[in-house]
Amino acid sequence: MKGYDYKELCSKFAYKGDYIGARIYGEGHINETFLIETTGRRYILQRVNSDVFKEPVQVIDNVVAVTEYLHNRIISNFGDPYRETLTLIPAKDGTFYHRTEQGDVFRMYLFIGNARSYQSIENPEMFYRVAKSFGRFQNLLKAFPADKLHETIPNFHDTVDRYRLFKEAIADDRVGRRSEVEKEINFFLDREEEASLVVDAIRTGEIPLRVTHNDTKLNNVLIDDATGEGVCVIDLDTVMPGSMLYDFGDSIRFGASTAAEDEQDLSNVWMDLELFEQYTKGYIEELKDSFTPKEIELLAFSAKLMTLECGMRFLTDHLNGDVYFRIHRKNHNLDRARTHIKLVSDMEAKMDKMNEIVLKYYNK
Ligand code: ADP
Ligand code: GN1
Ligand code: MG
């Protein structure tokens, strides 16, 4: 982490109050996030990761378009637009970002207070509410003109393309780790056949492209301290045309696990069916009228697919020398890949039950 001059960076934005201080904030794997204290409100200052997002200004453009749209939708629903969606603070030059001389791109948001993001589910009801939040988010964007959005990371959830990148990393073996992880590599290679199910169905039109969030992990929703309701879906950098299965599956991957994403004791790692049920219930309640038959058929499967895909991305990054996801210890990405292998195996064993749960709420 570089030592930034936070005060100087903040001075580029039209925030209210006098600068007091800054500290590193949050647990995201991608951007660098700082909490800014002022004599007035608090703010979030964020460096957009330009290794991950090759065109950071396109990311900003997307966030501007999506948050302006949501702002208006929330007002027409009599909600609080400064709490229920992100609010970018304009830069003094009239844009919504500041580019430093070194080329780093920063943005500033209003800090949403009296709410927090969680790294794990504290009770099943909480996950039901999170599902409602992501479901509502999708509903609010139903009529958003998708052609206004840049593809901020090409082929983001194209699992077939993810396999291509994985095999490239295996062949390159850039940092000489391949021989230590043959078992893990084979776990993913053995499951390649199923990887195309969703992308194929998108191609045939059985699964519609919608405007989706694409990064629906639990810590990307802020939960109200007082009511326990999901107040705001954040981390809008990957809002792009995609499948609702990506959003459903990725939420289960992270939130329905009984352990942290990087748990080292795999005997603690399971996919909790009760949590799966609560999420499925909330998601189907919100989106009942939207599903196509194929989406319902693949809903439970998508949890496995997104877990498989993310686990493979962690292993790819381990093979590439940890160049994508931020790590905090040796073999961190390998540990993450291993929890995902355990979760995929557990979901395979529970798939019939998961499908029964989907039908129970869909046919209600
Ligand atoms: P990353 O892309 O690295 O995951 P996020 O945009 O998700 O970055 O931000 C990281 C964390 O910072 C979030 O999980 C959340 O806890 C916190 N956060 C981000 N934006 C806000 C905001 N506007 N108000 C309050 N907390 C925020
Ligand atoms: C990253 O940025 P964050 O931490 O919310 C990643 C997701 C992964 C997730 C795994 C842009 O999400 O795709 O599923 O880590 N975001 C990007 O925890 O690659
Ligand atoms: Mg995040």
Instruction: Compute the number of helices.
Output: 11
How is the main sheet built? 5 strands, antiparallel
Bound compounds, each kind once, are:
adenosine-5'-diphosphate, 2-acetamido-2-deoxy-1-O-phosphono-alpha-D-glucopyranose, magnesium ion
- The ordered string of helix (H) and strand (E) elements is HEEEHHEEEHHHHEEEEHHHH
- The class by helix and strand makeup works out as alpha+beta
Low-confidence stretches: none
Description:
This protein has 364 residues and is of the alpha+beta class. It has eleven helices and ten strands. The protein has helices spanning 6-10, 56-76, 81-84, 124-140, 159-172, 182-189, 197-204, 244-255, 273-287, 293-320, 332-362, and strands spanning 19-24, 32-38, 43-48, 98-99, 105-110, 115-116, 210-212, 221-224, 230-233, 240-242. Strands 1-2-3-5-4 form a five-stranded antiparallel sheet. Strands 6-8-9 form a three-stranded antiparallel sheet. Strands 7-10 form a two-stranded antiparallel ribbon. Helix 4 runs antiparallel to helix 8 (244-255), helix 4 packs parallel to helix 9 (273-287) and helix 10 runs antiparallel to helix 11. It is globular. The mean pLDDT is 97. Residues 28-30, 52, 215, 217, 220, 235, 238, 250, 261, 310 line the site of 2-acetamido-2-deoxy-1-O-phosphono-alpha-D-glucopyranose.
Short structural description:
The protein is α+β, with helices and mostly antiparallel strands. It contains eleven helices and ten strands.
Task: For this entry, give a set of tags.
11 helices, binds adenosine-5'-diphosphate, three-stranded antiparallel β-sheet, five-stranded antiparallel β-sheet, globular, 10 strands, binds 2-acetamido-2-deoxy-1-O-phosphono-alpha-D-glucopyranose, alpha+beta
